[in-house]
Amino acid sequence: MILGSGSGELLRAAVSAFTSIDGALVAPDPTFEAPANWAKFIGVHVDAPKVDATLHLDLDAMVDQGRGAGLVYFCNPNNPTATVHGSSDVSAYVERVGKSSPGTTILIDEAYHEYVDEPSYRTAIPLALANPRVVVTRTFSKVFGMAGLRVGYAIGQPATLAKMAAWLLGSNVSQLTLVAAAATVGDQQHVALEQRRNRVTRAYTRKFFEQAGFAVSQGQANFMMVDVRRDAKQFKLDAIKHKVAVGRQFTALPTWVRVSVGTMPEMQKALQVFHTMLS
Fold this sequence. Notes:
Blueprint: E1 2-4, H1 6-18, E2 25-26, H2 34-41, E3 46-47, H3 59-66, E4 71-75, H4 87-100, E5 105-109, H5 125-130, E6 134-139, E7 152-155, H6 158-165, H7 175-185, H8 188-211, E8 223-227, H9 232-241, E9 256-260, H10 264-278
Parallel strand pairs: 2-3, 2-4, 4-5, 5-6
Antiparallel strand pairs: 1-7, 6-7, 8-9
């Protein structure tokens, strides 16, 4: 295992370590933009297969575009769509890439791991420990509530992690952050409480949109995507006028809005605003 300043530093290190001018990055559209943004900055080509009609990652397209790639970014659950792939799909995908492009590394980002309720889902850590071409990243920024302290970790085989570690700062995680992470990682009572709160408030939010007739993504995270059937960028600007903030617009899904799940009082206020805006 190696530590990073949030998982963000680890994602950047993976792009630097495993991609090249001849080895592209495969990052779905939409997904968390940081790996693709860094790849473009350092002159690496990015292939961006679009998500499918259900907003899940299109694994067939990712296999096709992964041939000869240096790195595949596989966010599971995916940000921003909040869709998740079960363990059998992930294992089959890794096997297919291994056969069609044995030199390609797959980074599976499990930043939202603790929020998943889908029964078929499992962590990919066993795959990373068994396969030198798989890395799993996690973060303390979500369920542990430590976004401002900046700490994440990557799990994989030692030789694989060594390639990433070469791109990390030597002073990337402070002593204060290490102490805080050590204190919170074993606090299962806190994690369980946050999971229950998220589960209840997420269901409340989903019910509002579905009863109003709007399509909602799978929602296996602390957010969901909602098709508001209008320009998402303008919807965001209009919501801000009511002191409610929603996620940024994603070009591939121009009418879908990313709605994060806050506390119950926060969501009750937000849904009142959305009711007015969407009526």
